[in-house]
Write a sequence for this structure.
């Protein structure tokens, strides 16, 4: 798909490409007044909406050659996207985690974490597939490892093992996914909350009676990670507390259950 270069309301430049994911794609020119410049203002900030970026530093260099500056620097992108970037900054707000160079033995996991555990790549899960995410005992973990090594999303990532936390469940199931729980995605623009929505957008909208407490945890994480355009995913535990699930560069994040129009309107109001 071709790149779409649009300056929204003469305030914010967005470079986008449709990736075929309804929770990610958004038609800016149908929702905002846009121009499509062929020349740029020197040092102009721009946002990428082209899906996951394999070589972010390379993208930054290319856009710098156009006279543009990506909203997140390569260092900030790492801090937002990679578990090893954000976890040390918020380890008290999220389940205990260890990143390994290779898949550890079941004995190592049993000694350090006990069972069950949650397993993911250092950057992402494999579409929240429970068979590649949750190991409830040693035999289950051996099976998970076989799948991890063959999975196209996971096999290139360093494995991360996380403490398993019981989350507040919601009604309904999404086929092929872990059990849906009371999870939310929050978007932050230069430290300000510009939107949030229910994570499991495939199910009817849900909320939380103590959402302010969850947003306070997300705000604390956003302040510590300190990235201009950031996503912080949070979840409510069965015991009523709130935790951070993960952080990400908001350029790569889907909108899930929130209105993209509201998100971009809120950002434009702050540019």
């Amino acid at each position: 798909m071709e790149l779409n270069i649009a300056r929204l309301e003469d305030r914010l430049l967005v470079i986008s490409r449709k990736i075929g994911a309804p929770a990610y794609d958004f038609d800016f020119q149908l929702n905002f007044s846009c121009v499509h410049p062929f020349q740029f203002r020197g040092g102009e900030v721009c946002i990428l909406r082209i899906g996951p970026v394999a070589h972010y530093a390379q993208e930054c260099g290319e856009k710098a050659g156009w006279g543009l500056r990506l909203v997140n620097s390569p260092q900030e992108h790492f801090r937002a996207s990679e578990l090893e970037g954000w976890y040390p900054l918020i380890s008290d707000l999220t389940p205990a985690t260890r990143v390994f160079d290779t898949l550890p033995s079941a004995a190592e996991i049993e000694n350090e974490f006990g069972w069950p555990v949650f397993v993911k790549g250092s950057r992402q899960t494999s579409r929240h597939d429970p068979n590649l995410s949750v190991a409830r005992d040693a035999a289950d973990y051996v099976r998970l490892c076989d799948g991890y090594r063959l999975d196209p999303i996971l096999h290139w990532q360093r494995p991360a093992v996380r403490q398993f936390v019981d989350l507040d469940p919601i009604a309904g199931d999404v086929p092929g996914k872990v059990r849906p729980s009371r999870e939310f995605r929050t978007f932050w623009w230069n430290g300000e909350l510009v939107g949030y929505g229910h994570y499991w957008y495939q199910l009817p909208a849900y909320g939380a009676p103590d959402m302010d407490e969850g947003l306070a945890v997300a705000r604390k994480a956003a302040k510590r990670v300190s990235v201009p355009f950031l996503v912080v995913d949070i979840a409510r535990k069965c015991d009523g507390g709130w935790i951070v699930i993960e952080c990400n560069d908001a350029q790569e994040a889907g909108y899930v259950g929130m209105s993209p129009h509201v998100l971009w309107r809120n950002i434009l109001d702050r540019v």
